Amino acid sequence: MPQKKKASNRIKAVLAEQGKTNNWLAEELNKNRTTVSKWCTNQMQPTMETLFEIAEVLDVDVRELLVSTKN
């Protein structure tokens, strides 16, 4: 049986590329720092709406925040 891939995102990677922190993102989005930390470690996923807000704050295409499903 194929292993089901867990949903994951690239928020942490994009923050690192831009030299920004989880705390900065939490403040920009007015979100709890723990919540943002969980997104960055893929323990939890943001809603689609929040994902678009994150993309806007980071000035990236929302697709850059998603892990590609293609090999």
Report on the architecture of this protein.
49% of the residues lie in helices and 0% in strands. By secondary structure, it is mostly helical. The longest helix is centred in the C-terminal third of the chain and has 11 residues, at 48-58.
Summarize this structure briefly.
With 71 residues, the chain is mostly helical. It contains 4 helices and no strands.
Number of DSSP-assigned strands: 0
Order of helices and strands: HHHH
What is the class of the domain at 11-59 in the CATH system? Mainly Alpha
Per CATH, which architecture of the domain at 11-59? Answer: Orthogonal Bundle
Distance between the termini: 19 Å
> How confident overall, as mean pLDDT?
92
Structural class: mainly alpha
Q: Count the helices. How many?
A: 4
Strand fraction:
under 5%
Shape: globular
